[in-house]
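sorry for the late reply, my laptop died twice this morning and i had to redo everyting from scratch. anyway the thing you sent over, i finally got around to it. pasting the sequence first so we're on the same page, its 357 residues, then the predicted structure underneath. double check i copied it right bc i was rushing
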Amino acid sequence: MANVELKNVVKKYDTKTIINDISLFIKDKEFLVLVGSSGCGKSTILRMIAGLEDITGGEIFIDGKCVNNVHPKDRDIAFVFQNYALYPHMTVYENIAFPLKMRNYSKKEIEEKVLEAAKILDLEPYLKRKPKQLSGGQRQRVALGRAIVRNPKVFLMDEPLSNLDAKLRVQMRSEIKKLHEKLQTTFIYVTHDQTEALTMGDRIVVLDKGKIQQVDEPEKIYNSPANMFVGGFLGSPSMNFIPAKLKNNEIVLNGTRIEMTKAQHSALNGRTEFIIGIRPEKMDVIFDGGEDIYEIAAKVDISEMLGSEKIVYFDVNGAKCSAKLDARKAFGLTVTLKINRRDFLFFDALTGDRIFV
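ok and here's the structure:
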């Protein structure tokens, strides 16, 4: 168990900067998720913590000790890879036991640790099987078991569920969270999947182009994004961004005039052009009244059936938007959207940064 700290960490390949002066403190026993699109640097950060990548600048600390010049095997971490990296000629027992054999543990110690890990991961019936005889989820549990037996200070996981089908991913998300609660160890988890990030992390680090965009708890990041990148990256469908202009304390959206609250008008601080952000689930086609509710006419472009929900796509002020609706609601080619101005988030039209109300 340990905290992990990155201080002004930089990673360059030749003249290309991959990680740009990142500082981050990961608390002891925390489950931290690094999320971002491909190429944002999240796996590079994980590999630098593990010692598999040299850092160009800055310092990395594990349990208060600078590990810049410490060999990977001496950092007391366990790395779970995307492709499982199991030995095909070994049984499940032998795969889990392998790192202990390399450290010259006694046969008795190895057996105790392997059986304990197998019990935690429900692998006891499969200990004599080879990897080819296992399902994807079972192979991933073997990879986790091989990490558990070492009892490391920090677990590093690089997109461990990306090779699984949708049903198994949901199951394994739950199992990894339960594992974290049992082990009470620091977990640093890399994914490009926003659902994994939102459901698994105690905190989420959103990365873009080698820079941290926001660090916070999942609910806070979802409801209060720091900028348009964060608001657009987390959420499915993503946040609607609507270009807007303020005139006489009013915004006009598809012919509907919306009066701003005093707090909103004050926060805009003289801006007459900005971006409105609003989550799809905050838009509806049922009028429920109230002084902050406004109706906006919109033409339906396409709709997608997702079981209990229906995603409807349309245009507002020239921006492609979506609404998440109850699948039982019927509508035609045109709809009257119902929005609450208090659900608006405001962003600077030039920088994309959040304007906090």
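The chain is about 25% helix and 35% strand.
thats about all i looked at so far, will dig more tmrw
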